[in-house]
């Protein structure tokens, strides 16, 4: 392997090839601190040509590649195994803003650009890139693409699949696929970029993307309201859609347990409590006061337990901070068995009711923390305290997952809505995914990566 590392250093530069344990340590542990790897080395290429040369070298030496963006994966998708034979390829140096075409509402960026940097580049051009995640200061566009990230604005703008116009990717044999055109319409065969979005780096390395921009809203109306049950929340979602159309940008829900976790760690942020809290946001052009008045007028006709409408940007940010702090607060609160699930929005009440009943029967006194993007049916459904003292939580994970996923798939849902599959859910994917769909995915994988060197040990 010394010859391999020497050639690799010649490609990326000695400063950008990390081999010492102290230097590689930040790249070996996932965000949840659940998966720990031991890579052969960490390479930090500086451009697409270096990525291409690196991949060719790895193929010649049969060295597996684990691509990594901001290392914010919650499923171990960007973590190497413990063999000491996998190369982590961190793409943070591919951080150029390649171009902004405001007239075409398009932004082209390198895969190592953080989501926040992409948002800022769009805003500087008077445009909006609408993907919004709690980790936006550290997650990178390449990772967002590889997991088909969604976030809080999917209701209006869609996931990364809908937000991507073009893609550049290095194939497992080192060739570069350049599909960065900023076109909305192209009927010349298959839309190849979609192969790489959501593939978690198993079909190639995404090196750049052309992203879809939108007019920058001048008005927001944001409210936090309490309702008595999830059925009421979904009824509100449908009526808000009817009243405001695509001005309804976000519709987030938080159950009572989620609110208790937030109260423990951010007591000053919690405005009130209810069986379910809903965070509603409208956005549009025009006068902010008019949009606020329209939301206030609608809310005045509804039966709610309590509520507050943000009167300025500071108050709006405070409400969103509350939502964005949930994951970190849960992390401080102790371990939990996490689920990133989705069902049709109409099925959310049944899922919440029936799944909780079965979990409580199996694990009396279990705590369920449920929150997320009810507007698109995506719920972060986290289970803890399955036994007194929570001593054996992960010993109960298979039984908990089976209960949750059985309910999800019975309702036509999915076990991975926006965080991907990675190492965490790969065996469950085999259990629940349609066998023909799995066969087709494996066929594509074998065609593009016959040696199985691209991010092995993950979902395929």
Automatic annotation (TrEMBL):
A Gene Ontology BP annotation from the UniProt entry: respiratory electron transport chain
Domain FAD-binding PCMH-type: 35-216
Cofactor: FAD
Keyword tRNA processing annotated: no
EC number: 1.1.3.15
Keyword list, A-Z: FAD, Flavoprotein, Oxidoreductase
UniProt key word Thylakoid: no
Pfam families recorded: FAD-oxidase_C, FAD_binding_4
Organism domain of life: Bacteria
One Gene Ontology MF term: FAD binding
Transmembrane segments: none
Matches recorded under PROSITE patterns: FAD_PCMH (PS51387)
PANTHER family reported in the protein's UniProt record: BLL6224 PROTEIN, D-2-HYDROXYGLUTARATE DEHYDROGENASE, MITOCHONDRIAL
The family this protein is said to belong to: Belongs to the FAD-binding oxidoreductase/transferase type 4 family.
Record-given protein name: Probable oxidoreductase
